[in-house]
Task: structure prediction
Amino acid sequence: MQSRLPASINFAMQSEAGEGLHVAIIMDGNGRWATRRGWRRVAGHRAGVAAVRRVVERAPELGIARLTLYAFSSDNWRRPSLEVQSIFSLIAAYLRIERERLRATGVRLEAIGRRDRLPRLLLREIDACEVATAGGQRMHLRVAVDYSSREAIARAAADLVGEGGMQSQEALERGLAAALDAAVGNVDLLIRTGGEKRLSDFLLWESAYAELVFTDRMWPDFDETNLEAAVAEFRRRERRFGGVPTANTETATVAADSERVAAELSAEVLRTP
Ligand code: FPP
Result:
């Protein structure tokens, strides 16, 4: 995906050429999927883990180099404690069971979000999985747990200001981009399942130029073909990063037009009493 902007102002807008895509997924609809079947919500989360496995397996083959999954938002603490504990247990189980497969297939696992409120059992599995898969080169899998994008932005800004006193806006933006991207770059494609069309405090800074794909499909039903379809939809879209469709032959005409408009405007301004 080539940007038409000068490199100097392009620092935070797109993934580097040849790096592969960064796809982020808001995995929504587990609860509805289960209750529609007359089951408890946790059954939906369990089925959601199977969808995670399908997607992680297929993603590298589709040119996805970075995959960020929204597993538990900081707002999810408002849910009944039993559901919260079940989600943590499922994430821990996934990390334990899949650790060796992730390592063997070159997937590097990283958890993003706050760690200070997570149960010890989950922290142990996160640490073990991060250590075991640290050498993975094929795909960087980030699981967002107790994550809030606003909180991450505020924390990064506070760190930067604390470090260097008041900074220029440009220095602050560059520092924020560096801190928030943390070597994974911007989101190219953001997918949300479950029919809702909102970002829910997920990767707000990193998704500034992301293409958004919303699907009514509930997360437990999401599979490889749905991921392929979303990536195909992304590839059909033209990413302009605020520029124009093409640097084409219109340029000369546009320049002449704007000179004429500017001349007319100055004539108009000069006529004003
Ligand atoms: C949103 O659906 C889903 C969650 C808050 C939990 C997501 C967790 C998993 C898929 C399981 C574990 C994840 C990993 C990475 C192994 P919802 O409950 O809000 O659904 P609803 O909108 O239908 O109520």
Remarks:
- The longest strand covers residues 64-73.
- The radius of gyration is 22 Å.
- Confidence is low (pLDDT under 50) at residues 1-14.
